[in-house]
Amino acid sequence: MRQSPHSRREQAMELGMIGLGRMGANMAQRLVRGGHRVAGFDSSAESRARAAQNGIEPATSLAELVAALKPPRALWLMVPAGAPVDQTIDALLALLAPGDVIVDGGNSMYKDTLRRAQRLAEREIHYVDCGTSGGVWGLEEGYSLMIGGDEAAVAKLAPVFATLATAPDRGWGRVGPVGSGHFAKMVHNGIEYGMMQAYAEGFSILEHKREFALDLAQIAGIWRHGSVVRSWLLDLIADALAENPQMTGIAPWVADSGEGRWTLAEAIELGVSAPVTAAALLERIRSRDKDSFSDKLLAAMRNQFGGHEIRKE
Fold first, then answer.
1. What is the pLDDT of residues 135-164, one digit of tens each?
2. What angle do CA 58, 59, 62 make, to 5 degrees?
3. Is the same domain home to 162 and 207?
4. Together in a domain, 68 and 34
5. Which of 236, 225, 227 shows the shortest CA–CA distance to 141?
6. Around Cβ 63, how many Cβ atoms within 10 Å?
7. Which residue among 57, 70, 192, 266 is the active-site one?
8. Is the dihedral of CA 156, 160, 166, 167 positive or negative?
9. What are phi and psi of 5, to 5 degrees?
10. Whole-prediction pTM value?
């Protein structure tokens, strides 16, 4: 269901976006396209200038940003998880007033979110956590938004969420009280780890069957339509294989954002078996060990008990 321009104007809001990196700038731009007024702050003058070209009103400081908004204000944080979020909140506390709302749209640990919400509640400032998925495609395709927080505070921001989502009536929702949005996003990322690992292993098996000379991009394309393993991740795999069939120039080093670790820790704390998530996370960590002591020791053990060959470096 698409909103008419008239209905968008009736629901237009104003928002302050803090953090105009790739995600923050794209989200701000999507909001501007949807008829909302967005002021933005980033410590980088280059990021502010780039955002200004897309209709976002740049502010050179947090104080200037807050002053540009009418109370009760809504400010959306898109800054790295951890200390940067706390530092930004510290700076905002002297500028905000009761009734204002802070939305944390980054990948914060939900336990940190609970702590921050309690602190802000003492100042009668609402804290809403929004697990955000969609990556660089979100500007055009929309985002998946998992929202936690006070029902009334979330409801007031509904026009913003509806514009950012894939459609006004889907792809977003309040999943529970404060903390639940980031918790849901954490588990989402843990699932993502397992799905990515399964795809990577499957295509590696195909690639190693050299006598068949399989065209991996072709197989990915076939699986995209009608297959039970079709997904957006598979769409991205098909594109990547078409562009670079041999993955030439890509180092076998895989980062992790931390949310896979948090998901696994939560599973252990709750007594929930999550072997796929665990294996996927450990494979990512293993990919960074260029000089694997464990693999060397395994080879030495096989030589000790069975006289198996040891390959020299």
1. 889 999 999 999 999 999 999 999 999 999
2. 145
3. no
4. yes
5. 236
6. 14
7. 192
8. positive
9. -55, -35
10. 0.90
Closest CA to 33 of 142, 156, 147: 142
Q: Based on the domain organization, do 29 and 154 belong to the same domain?
A: yes
Together in a domain, 128 and 223 = no
* Helix, strand, coil share of the chain (percent; to 5): 55, 15, 35
Query: Using CA of residue 184, residue 116, residue 22, residue 139, what is the dihedral sign?
Result: positive
Tokens 């002297």 found at: 94
* Domain region containing 153: 5-177
> Which CATH number does the domain housing residue 215 bear?
1.10.1040.10
Q: List the beta bridge partners of residue 148.
A: 129, 176
Residue 192 annotated to the active site: yes
* Type of residue at 153: A
- Of the residues 185, 209, 312, 313, only one is catalytic, namely 185
User: In the sheet that 101-104 helps form, which strands lie side by side, from edge to edge?
Assistant: 57-59, 37-41, 14-18, 74-77, 101-104, 126-133, 144-148, 172-176
**Res 3: pLDDT:** 42
Residue 306 in domain: no
Q: How confident is the model at residue 8 (pLDDT cuts 50, 70, 90)?
A: very low
Give the dihedral sign, CA 196/199/202/203. Answer: negative
Annotation marks residue 14 as catalytic: no
DSSP 165: B
* pLDDT tens digit sequence for 193-212: 999 999 999 999 999 999 99
